[in-house]
Amino acid sequence: MTADSETRPLRIAILGAGLVGAFAAVALSKLPNVEITVYEKSQGIREVGAAITLTEGGLVTLSKVFDLEELEPILYRSPKHGHITRRHWKTGEYFKEPEPTHPDELKYSHAKAQRILLLEFILKHVPEGLIKYDHEVKGVDVKPDGATINFKDRTPVRADLVISADGIYSKIRRQFTNDKIIYKGAVAYRNVFDDSIVNDIPGVPDDVTVWIGKGSAMFMTRLTPGKFNVAAHLRDPPDVASKLKWDRGTGDWGKQRLIEHFKDWDPVIGKILDVMPESIAFPLERAPWLRNLVVGNRIVFVGDAAHPTSGVYGAGANMGWDDVWALYKSLTETSDRDYDLPSALFLFNETRVPFLKRVEEQIDIDQAIGAKYLATASDDDEWRKRIEKRGLSAKWITAHNVNLEFEKVRDKHFLDVFA
Ligand SMILES: Cc1cc2nc3c(=O)[nH]c(=O)nc-3n(C[C@H](O)[C@H](O)[C@H](O)COP(=O)(O)OP(=O)(O)OC[C@H]3O[C@@H](n4cnc5c(N)ncnc54)[C@H](O)[C@@H]3O)c2cc1C
Fold first, then answer.
1. Which one of the record's GO molecular function terms can you name (predicted)?
2. Ligand 1 mean position to 170 CA, how many Å?
């Protein structure tokens, strides 16, 4: 942008007010001389009753913008610092874990939150009047002098910088990639309900725990305040998966599907399933991740619009917050030059793309490990040994420090960008 910063603020349009778009609205509002508008297609807040992990890296990023003490009342921290414990599907015994490492301060330890409470928390910090609900974006036209955002049944608007935070089905990403959303072969069954329903069942876990069987998994955790979360991933055929949607209950069908599937597993699972209310269920999907997060120095992709994850490593939203923080830092560096967008967006892209590429590669490696190494174990003892050896801490992903990564990139490119 070349306009005089004293007369003309940088107009930033954020598309989507989900966990990442809402965070972008809070973080970027702290920049000097910007005018931010968020366009969200739904009529108001709508999140499903499910849980979300806040990783060590994600909490460090959130702490740049929020007072974590204010967030603490909605976080659940298990006795094992929130780390997921893994159990044998039938016996319920714990697998051996690699020695866990914890951040120095408890406030950065893995935590769980109800998605809806977390979204409400972030939205509460968005400056009033920034979010325009009922604004469905149809597409964005990019020209060297700015971008035009086109809506369904509304007048187009102009912006200097468009942030596409419109999720896995992003219209804007597909405007440039034409990619296809692919069913990953598993359906997620999710439920959050009052913990009073299960508190009297002997053996109800206090830890964040997952029972691993061949080809499926059952996650359970308590949530704050006074809730319990059941989440299962089951290999359902595409014709079953395609009938399910995240914003619709399954009626008794979903509950019976879980009871039937888990009937031979650790008995505590069946006891909890017997008393829980009906669940929601939706197919887990993915699309190729973007290898370039910037279009025409006018559009930036963040969150699931950039890396459509379906919950991989419990880190999708956390990686989205890191995208936003990298963008904030990049814009800050150039704010004294009327936001030199080509330089800022170069720094942003260089900070995020190499890391995201490594994560996406790891997803494929982990899938291959599941298919070739874990699934081919000759018997249960061998399978157990393989699971324990595999570890799966993914610490380098969940503890990634985007702030340090940004500094590394900025210092490497100092002469190109600032001299
Ligand atoms: C089963 C499951 C478990 C998960 N668990 C975790 C976890 O534990 N930890 C974690 O970090 N992540 C987790 N994730 C991933 C996480 O949910 C996503 O990464 C995160 O929600 C992405 O946020 P977002 O804001 O980018 O997209 P979304 O949350 O999808 O928000 C996109 C927003 O854009 C709006 N929108 C869409 N299209 C338009 C349009 N055309 N115009 C205007 N607005 C539009 C939508 O209405 C929505 O509000 C999980 C995902 C799944 C499926």
1. FAD binding
2. 10
Q: Closest ligand 1 atom to the C-alpha of 138?
A: 41
Instruction: Output the pLDDT for position 170.
Output: 97
Please name the residue whose Cα sits nearest to atom 51 of ligand 1. 311
Find the mean pLDDT for residues 140-150.
Answer: 96
Q: Please give the distance, rounded to the nearest whole angstrom, from the Cα atom of residue 95 to the centre of ligand 1.
A: 31
pLDDT tens per residue, range 299-315: 999 999 999 987 788 89
> The pTM is what?
0.96
pLDDT interval class at 2 (50, 70, 90): very low
Q: Which atom of ligand 1 is nearest to the CA of 305?
A: 26
> Averaged over 276-288, what is the pLDDT?
92
Choice from 309, 321, 397, 398 to test ligand 1 binding pocket (greatest atom count within 8 A of CB) = 309
Tell me which of 100-104, 227-231, 338-342, 355-359 is least confident.
100-104
Q: Could you tell me the domains of the chain?
A: 10-47+68-74+115-180+290-417 (3.50.50.60), 182-286 (3.30.9.30)
**What are 358's two structure tokens?**
């490594």
CA neighbor of 40 nearest in space, from 72, 4, 14? 14
Q: Is the CB of 165 under 6 A from ligand 1?
A: yes
Nearest CA to ligand 1 atom 14: 311
DSSP state of 249: B
Mean pLDDT, rounded, for 224-233: 95
Q: What is the pLDDT of residues 94-142, one digit of tens each?
A: 988 776 677 778 899 999 999 999 999 999 999 999 999 999 999 999 9
Measured by CA distance, the residue closest to atom 30 of ligand 1 is 167
Q: Which atom of ligand 1 is nearest to the CA of 318?
A: 11
- CB 114, CB 76: distance < 8 Å: no
Q: What is the pLDDT at residue 6? A: 62
| DSSP per-residue string spanning 170-223 | -HHHHHHH----EEEEEEEEEEEEEGGGTTTSTT--SS-EEEE-SS-EEEEEEE
134 within ligand 1 shell (Cβ under 6 A): no
Listed residue (299, 337, 301, 342) closest to 319, CA to CA: 301
Handedness of CA 125, 129, 135, 138 (dihedral sign): negative
- Binding site membership of 254 for ligand 1 (Cβ less than 6 Å): no
